[in-house]
Amino acid sequence: MMSNSRNDPVQWGAVLSVLLGMVAFAFSVTTLTISIPSIMASLSVDIDHIQWVVTSFDMTQTVVMPTVGWLGGILGNRNLFLTGIATSLLGACLGGMSWNLESLLTFQIIQGIGAGLMQPTLTAILYGLFPPYRRGLAVALSMTAFGIGPTFGPIIAGYLVEYVSWRATFYVQVPIVLSSFVLTLCTMPNVIESRGRRIDLPGLLSMSVFLVCLLLALTQAHKEGWASGYILALCATSGLAFIVFLVVELSVSEPLVDLRLYRHLSFTMGCLLAFLNTMVFRGAGFLMGVFVQHTLQYSAIQAGYMTAPSGIAFGAMSYLSGKLSDRFGPRLPIVIGMLLFIWTFFWYAEMNRWSTTCTILQVMALRPFAYGWTNSPTNFAALHNLPEQTVRMGSGLFSLVRGVASSFGVAMGATLLERQVQVHTLRFSEDAGAAGDSLQDTLGGLQASVAPWGDTAATHRQQSLARLGQYMREEAVFRAYQDIFILGGILSLVTLLPVFFLVRRARQTTASASAAAEKVRRPGSAPP
User: Fold this and answer.
1) How far is CA 388 from CA 3, 255, 391, 507, in A?
2) Which pLDDT belongs to residue 135?
3) Secondary structure class of 76 (helix, strand, coil)
4) Per-residue 3-state assignment (H helix, E strand, C coil) for 142-202
5) Are 376 and 136 in contact (CB under 8 A)?
6) Would you place residue 451 in the very low, low, confident or very high pLDDT band (cuts 50, 70, 90)?
7) In the chain, count of helices (H) and strands (E)?
8) Within 10 Å of residue 332's Cβ, how many Cβ atoms?
9) Which of 21, 104, 264, 405 could form a Cys-Cys staple with 279, CB 3.0–4.6 A?
10) CB neighbour burial string for 276-289, b if at least 16 within 10 angstroms, e if fewer
11) How open is the CA angle 214-219-224, to the nearest 5 degrees?
């Protein structure tokens, strides 16, 4: 790539090509969020099944990410990045041709492979393009580019879903990916290491079995029952695979995931913070996409416009928090972001069918606004003190943690929502049965409201019961969402704990780095 000398200029053409890849990745994620309700209707699937469209992408991306260290040593960062965006583009184009849920899941897996190769490589490339004292800016730029997708992606997706088809949303990233591909070829040299690392196949297989079995158990336990043989077998297999994974990774000379990096306290706490924060953020984001369109009955275009400000908020705060991390260290912006998270999720819990559009917009924008405060500084804090030669491995491991958290967040959000809807529906039915007189009064009022429609008294009663049942189901859904958002607020409170173990000091600024270097060069001066 380029040296990290303080006098080296930043290769902005190469930086732009990488950032375009990040924009394309963000487009693929945010446009899918808007199109999911339409996909549910088109392919006739419920929320418990549609969540696998997102989870399969996240899970595949997560499994592929640890191979970046091995593949990067063989192909070089540039070629690995090009391979990732080309594979992601293939999966997206095929996804637009999906004919059922199974085919869509298959194509999402292909796109997840591309994203898994591309995303960790982005950070490693940017770290090589910027000198050490400006890497907070590098992370901030990547997060700002990622914010462009949530800004324009939902609006474009809303129009495509409304006037063309949900299938068109898979093709919207094509020109961006092609631009990134061409610009990368023109501006970025490829550096291949003199010695390629061997792939840790036992580690990759044991990690894959652990993650897949655990996610299957978590998402299907509410239907099968935690005591069922199927779920117990999944849990046992997952636990055994996790033990094998730990033993293998700690014993081989070239592990798939270098768990020894967790000896660095800041890296460990940064990964823990990223896991908790991403799990809550992604789970809530998936549910909000369904909530706005399915529950609050907004159109795809309206949902797109309502989601767009979140991208601006995320991008702007990611850039600002990255700059603040360079100057003051990462703890201050992370604490600000987590406090905003806590407030936002408890505000989420106040939303109901009578919430105004203005309130919904404010709440939807606050979540990515808070995440922007935490995202760049968390990345910065995790990789801050790692040795230079371990940055790519650390970046891959950090991305792995985020990928696992994203899969967990989406899967558990959908599972808990379905469970809580059932719980509240049953509770409302029990309450209605206990309140016999009040129920009769309610049915009498409903029958009076449908009487002008004609038909017989028996039909009036059936219509009244149907309307009452529909209202109870809708209220159960609202209550379930409120429960999920309260849980998100509680988890955000817990997430504050790792913040206090992060690094305190900020990186040296340009001026301080120059002064330190001059002091070292000056004869007879004391060491800095």
Assistant:
1) 12, 18, 6, 15
2) 62
3) coil
4) HHHHHHHHHHHHHHHHHHHHHHCCHHHHHCCCHHHHHHHHHHHHHHCCCCCCCCCCCCCHH
5) yes
6) low
7) 17, 0
8) 17
9) 405
10) bbbbbbbbbbbbbb
11) 100
Q: What is the pLDDT of residue 465?
A: 57
Q: Which tops the pLDDT comparison, 393 or 79?
A: 79
What is the distance between the alpha carbons of residues 160 and 27, in angstroms, rounded to a whole number?
A: 13
The pTM for the full model equals 0.69
pLDDT score at 21? 81
In angstroms, rounded to a whole number, what is the distance separating the alpha carbons of residues 40 and 1? 45
Question: What number of residues does the chain have?
Answer: 528
CA atoms within 13 A on the CB side of 427: 11
For residue 509, the model assigns a pLDDT of 41
Mean pLDDT of 383-397: 74
Closest CA to 89 of 113, 58, 69: 113
Per-residue 3-state assignment (H helix, E strand, C coil) for 188-244: CCCCCCCCCCCCCHHHHHHHHHHHHHHHHHHHHHHHHCCCCHHHHHHHHHHHHHHHH
Q: What is the pLDDT of residues 489-514, one digit of tens each?
A: 888 888 888 887 776 654 444 444 34
Contact 162, 299 (CB under 8 A): yes
Distance CA 147, CA 30 (A): 10
Structural contact between residues 37 and 166, judged by C-beta atoms closer than 8 angstroms: no
Burial class (CB in 10 A: 0-12, 13-18, 19+), 368: buried
Measure the CA–CA gap between 325 and 468, rounded to whole angstroms: 54
